[in-house]
Amino acid sequence: MTAALALGDDALVLSHRLGEWAGHAPVLEEEVALANIALDLLGQARVLLSLAGDEDELAYLREERAFRNVQLVEQPGGDFAHTIARQLYFSTYQELLYERLARGTGPFAPLAAKAVKEVAYHRDHAEHWTLRLGDGTDESHERMRRGLDALWRFTGELFEPVEGCEVEWPTLHDAWLTRITSVLERATLALPEGPRRGGWAAGAGRQGIHTEPFGRMLAEMQHLHRSHPGATW
Amino acid sequence: MVTPGPSPAPTPPTPPAAPTPSASGTGLTPLEEELLRLAGAVPDPELPMVSLAELGVMRGLRLLGPGRVEVELTPTYTGCPAVETMATDIERVLHDHGVPEVAVRTVLSPPWTTDAISAEGRRKLAESGIAPPAPLDAAAGGGPVPVALAVRCPHCGSTETELLSRFSSTACKALRRCAACGEPFDHFKEL
């Protein structure tokens, strides 16, 4: 089940990255918001990975090269604007993808139909913050711009067809670009320029090629389970 | 075999091999209806003022054989951590009523929506200081409701309330504040 791994790993890895904000978010409300989004994604990951095998084994015992998530979700959180840029790119993509999967008859339709309603709130949250930061102070505008620019090269991979997902990828891409362009315009930000993928690094997460920070993230995520196999609360 | 519980209801007969559907139109046997009522009366672990039936998360109950019951439960949010507690609570209640084997299955389809919360459930939420969700506009298809839409303060009744955060103490709630009485409150957000 390549597709279940791809979608499940996206949700699992981003969930872990968002969880890293616990105790560090700029305000309490945002700490709660990011943790809530992480929880929704973890729920999706559990359903998706269970379609592919044993959820715990898949999450905690696979090596880096066996993960099929896009490289965008494994990128470190950076500052708050950087995290919002990652959320904007990813949640916009995920909502459009789940909308399409929900309309289909494939194995992901029930999960997609349920989760798309949750993801709508994630996307809405990211858009609101993009507007506030982009159309805010010089400092917040600059930080939002930096986050969007830095992650731009990881957005091309989102639209690589995933085997087992009956989705028209080119139209999904066009819808994504239209939506992002409109949000950035309203936020007084420019659409980043430059390549959407890099020859050496970006664009290969679906094939198991990951960026350097991912190994460190996995070490932290998996260490408890590996050190104490079968541990329960 | 099913041992009748301490409930004062008439002792249900031992189910026949092929359960006879009741005349109530639900397709459930009287025993299944009784067990579904018991399971549905379990309070929600995070919002104990409402029962699972009032929350609309009970999807069905089937007697698989003597003393063997399968319950279908749907989560409010995919990652809702309360689902496991709900399952344990349902198992306990049915064990206490003489069903030794209880399997609780989580079903996703059709997805749960806040429209599944009963009128009584909404009343109890409001009474406990949680603004109930607005009915979904079928045309809008759910999702985030425009901020402009008024949510009434459960404390003083004012419609002058503002959104503080779309995410709050549990996955299903948003945090708002009332401009009239100044109190913050949870709003069960539309899904």
Automatic annotation (TrEMBL), chain A:
The biological process GO terms on file are: phenylacetate catabolic process
Report which superkingdom the organism of origin falls in.
Bacteria
Q: Name one GO cellular component term.
A: cytosol
Entry's InterPro entries? Aromatic_CoA_ox/epox, Ferritin-like, Ferritin-like_SF, PaaA_PaaC, PaaC
**SUPFAM superfamilies xref list:** Ferritin-like
Q: Which NCBIfam families match?
A: PA_CoA_Oxy3
Identify the PANTHER family for this entry. Answer: 1,2-PHENYLACETYL-COA EPOXIDASE, SUBUNIT C, PHENYLACETIC ACID DEGRADATION PROTEIN PAA
This protein is called: Phenylacetate-CoA oxygenase subunit PaaI
